[in-house]
């Protein structure tokens, strides 16, 4: 029976050209390397080295054995690694679909939460708008939980194979350029903001339709100077003085200088945040993630107000 340790030593001796160099590389003494090579010669019945007082010369048999030994040793390493993996506890994985502002402001806080870190669950994240995330639920079935929002009664539909769980509300707030001279948290009637320049959602989307109807019911007729579905861009444009905007509170967590937030009593609108949970995938880790999410939203002040 050939000792794999001796094979590994043979590879190093042939590669480095001396017992001493191989000994230094492997952490042995030169004498130990010499003894291993002698033992390998006895086990194989083949002369591996032509020895002289000052040097060694590998024989053709040693070179051939080295070439095959490299493959044998690679297979042994793979075998040992596979055995070690089967002895480990399997890693749990959570596949998550999430919309951008939740991924920006809430998900990092969950990942830093000690309760989540302790679980050692591997997270696989897909960041997309709700419609795209729901399509993934419908067709691929690759998600364990999808986080989406709905504005008012806007047309957002999901498969009958999932359960919907309310997480919290993300209220919209009116923001203005600070240079317009209206103080922060000022209470302003909606019709006083009419005919002012506004940054609005792109028309045709379900969110834009809900907002347009709300503004019309408040007798607020905005003079649109920009269309933007990116709340960060809307805030930066408002800060630069371009116009007013309606943005959710999550986006205000990184509010730029140069904008003020108003209290407009007639404008009460929120993004209702839901977790969509495939019925066959409602595991303990999924539920824990949803609970951490709801708790984080509550701490950020974005849950429903009485």
Helix content: 40-55%
Q: Output the helix-strand order.
A: HHHEEHEHHHEHEEEHEHEHEEH
* Main β sheet profile: 9 strands, mixed
Low-confidence stretches: none
Distance between the first and last residues' Cα? 79 Å
Task: Give an overview of the whole structure.
By secondary structure, the protein is α/β, with parallel strands linked by helices. The protein has helices at residues 4-16, 19-26, 30-44, 60-87, 100-105, 107-111, 114-117, 130-139, 206-217, 231-239, 249-252, 284-299; strands at 49-51, 56-58, 93-98, 122-127, 145-151, 162-177, 197-200, 223-227, 244-248, 259-262, 270-278. α1 (4-16) packs across α4 (60-87). The strands form two sheets. Strands 3, 4, 5, 6, 7, 8, 9, 10 and 11 form a nine-stranded mixed beta sheet that branches. α9 links the parallel β7 and β8. It is built from twelve helices and eleven strands.
In short:
The protein has twelve helices and eleven strands.
What brief labels describe this structure?
single chain, 306 residues, alpha/beta, two-stranded antiparallel sheet, 12 helices, 42% helix
Protein topology:
Elements: H1 4-16, H2 19-26, H3 30-44, E1 49-51, E2 56-58, H4 60-87, E3 93-98, H5 100-105, H6 107-111, H7 114-117, E4 122-127, H8 130-139, E5 145-151, E6 162-177, E7 197-200, H9 206-217, E8 223-227, H10 231-239, E9 244-248, H11 249-252, E10 259-262, E11 270-278, H12 284-299
Parallel strand pairs: 3-4, 3-5, 7-8, 7-9
Antiparallel strand pairs: 1-2, 5-11, 6-9, 6-10, 6-11
Helix pairs in contact: 1-2, 1-3, 1-4, 2-3
